[in-house]
Amino acid sequence: MKWAFALCAMVALSECLVQVPLNKVKTARERLEEQGLWEEYRLKYPYNPMSKFDSRFAVAGEPMTNDADMSYYGVISIGTPPQSFRVIFDTGSSNLWVPSIYCNSAACNNHNKFNPSTSSTFRNNGNSLDIHYGTGSMTGFLAYDTVTVGGLPVTNQIFGLSETEAPFMQYMQADGILGLAYPALSASGATPVFDNMMQENLVNQDLFSVYLSPNSEQGSVVTFGGVDPNHYSGAITWVPLSRDLYWQITVDSVTVNGQVVACSGGCQAIVDTGTSLIVGPQSSISNINTQVGATSQNGDFVVNCNNIGQMPDVTFNIHGQQFTLPASAYVRQSQYYGCRTGFGGGGDSLWILGDVFIRQYYSIFNRAQNMVGLARSR
């Protein structure tokens, strides 16, 4: 314990902050576009952003989907001596899993695999793990080992080892997922990594925060145990959770040019680092895209790249405050497919505030008080 806090003092600003740099890399979509394979992939593995929030799997499994636009991952290690893995820090799920040497799926063969026989601290749990995807699944088993995050060893951490993986995973650069939602969501009752961090007193405060750099491949970071004032400006708006399973909050409305265009009367939204877009009900998303001048094309909403400077802001009104996204934040540009907005349909009544939103607003996930804090990123 003394070693852990001593390391915190070196890493931190003025308190015990454990920071993990997040690398921004080419997305699966960008890599497939370069190879001329995107259209084939898109049709073969359709994107279903709401599958991970399907209530049928809320406890029995960890639903995920093939988000081809995910671009951030951090590095952790598992075992003694440590084996390194690139993981998506996902606030929309609760389990940690990585590929294993027992997996021969194409998705495993181009990723790092955990070898239990080389770790002196490995213990097999004996239970199976089944993670449902939008277009397939991952199967494997559960085990215990030391998981090192930001230099801090989390001992006896339960995690999943894949034996099969859905084909679309081979196009993603991350090896696995580290879930940061609530324990009630966890498959097989596995204790999430951050819960063990709190139980082992490895963090000074029972919260973590996420900064996603909008314009650089470097600079993004997830901070455990506090907030980093270097990454936000102005006041923090604290929003109480409407449900402490996901990081779910109430949005009052969505406006363009002062007019309500979606979420009239309020709606529910999940702040999710594991989703790249802002996702909502199809009719609402279509209305937003129409208001900003986008047209539907092959499943995307596209705009003229020359019009970005004249496109209106989109504002999410949350807890009495305005969280505004300029066009420069919600339009993504591709050298192969032009410009498209970051608003995607697929929900029924639930919204997802994914990376398009989080890049603009430093997001703090407070377990002690069951709140999300939002502040302008810088």
Structural notes for this entry:
By secondary structure, this protein is mainly beta. The protein is built from 8 helices and 27 strands. The strands form 4 sheets. Strands 2-3-8-4-7-6 form a 6-stranded mixed beta barrel. It has a 6-stranded mixed sheet with strand order 12-13-16-25-17-24. The chain has a 4-stranded antiparallel sheet with strand order 15-14-20-21. It is 14% helix and 41% strand. The radius of gyration is 20 Å and the shape is globular. It folds into 2 domains: 210 residues, Acid Proteases (Cathepsin D, subunit A, domain 1, Beta Barrel), CATH 2.40.70; 150 residues, Beta Barrel (Cathepsin D, subunit A, domain 1), CATH 2.40.70.10. It starts with a helix and ends with a strand. Strand 14 and strand 15 form a beta hairpin. Belongs to the peptidase A1 family. Pfam families: A1_Propeptide (PF07966), Asp (PF00026). Keywords: Aspartyl protease, Digestion, Disulfide bond, Hydrolase, Protease, Signal. InterPro entries: Aspartic_peptidase_A1 (IPR001461), Aspartic_peptidase_AS (IPR001969), Aspartic_peptidase_N (IPR012848), PEPTIDASE_A1 (IPR033121), Peptidase_aspartic_dom_sf (IPR021109). GO terms for molecular function: aspartic-type endopeptidase activity.
